[in-house]
Design brief:
Strand content: over 45%
Helix content: under 10%
Structural class: mainly beta
Strand order of the largest sheet: 1-4-5-6-7-8-9-10-11-12-13-14
Number of strands: 14
Shape: globular
């Protein structure tokens, strides 16, 4: 069971200005959100099943605001919002380093190949993870993924793959349904800190994203061009690598990290590269 109540106190930058004219908005306001989760887990031998219920309530949202509160209101135009849904529901098989998980689950990009050293684990969690894909837990709703993942873990190495349909959620109060038209998939190979490689982490990955919802894309093309290509799909392949190393130095440690990636594919009428 998990309960999180958080008040948010917003003091934005004042009214937005469009063509030299100020647009009156609520730039100072407060609101509160509550996220309640209740789960049940059963495991026997190599098998595990898990189900988690979530209830989210958000109150005192601004009707004409800017900032975070306005993002919730824009998705669901009510100052008080509430929704209950299945946050997770999956079955898992794990044996001799191999694992396969199917169903509704949370996925943390770059969270694989978990570091043993606490300093490297901090880099992994707060500098690498969720740069591209994650459950968006900062929001009061979050996001889940329907699909499956598999992996194989050794002492100093882990490989894995996944294919998912993301759910609504994030700033949308109802996180139950899939976002029709969006698919994500990927492969990852991870070097773990171990006796063989010392205090070193490494990662190479490929991630695929496709969007066939037929929406007007958000980019810097002129509005008429974007509207004319709204039915064209978006298909992006991301290839990347990351590394980190920790060196004991005097009474403390010296650490360094890098993260880089490149993209190819189609952004509607544009070549992505």
């Amino acid at each position: 069971m998990h309960e999180r109540i958080r008040g948010e106190f917003v003091d934005w930058f004042g009214d937005p200005v469009v063509n030299g004219n100020a647009i009156p908005k609520e730039s100072t306001y407060n609101f509160v959100g509550n996220k309640f989760q209740l789960g049940v887990r059963a495991a026997k031998g190599p098998f595990e099943v898990f189900a988690q219920f979530q209830d989210t309530t958000i109150a005192a949202l601004p009707e004409n605001g800017v900032g975070i509160g306005a993002a919730y209101y824009a998705q669901t135009p009510h100052t008080t919002q509430q929704s209950a849904f299945l946050r997770q529901g999956y079955a898992k098989f794990k044996s001799d380093g191999f694992s396969i998980t199917g169903g509704r689950q949370l996925y943390f990009d770059a969270g694989q190949g978990v570091a043993r050293n606490k300093n490297l684990k901090w880099i992994q969690d707060f500098r690498w993870a969720q740069r591209l894909i994650g459950p968006f837990e900062y929001t009061h709703v979050g996001r889940s993924f329907d699909g499956g993942q598999l992996g194989y873990q050794m002492d100093d190495f882990e490989v894995g793959g996944f294919a998912f349909l993301p759910t609504y959620g994030g700033f949308e109060i109802n996180g139950m349904h899939d976002i029709s038209g969006i698919n994500v998939a990927g492969l990852t190979a991870n070097l773990r800190d171990s006796e063989a490689v010392g205090n070193t982490l490494g990662r190479v990955f490929w991630t695929y994203y496709s969007d066939t919802r037929g929406l007007v894309a958000t980019d810097n093309r002129p509005a008429p061009v974007r509207a004319a290509t709204r039915g064209d799909p978006i298909e992006i392949h991301t290839l990347g690598a990351a590394g980190a190393h920790l060196l004991p130095l005097g009474p403390g440690n010296l650490d360094g990290s890098f993260f880089g990636y490149g993209q190819v594919g189609k952004w509607q009428s544009l070549d992505q590269n």
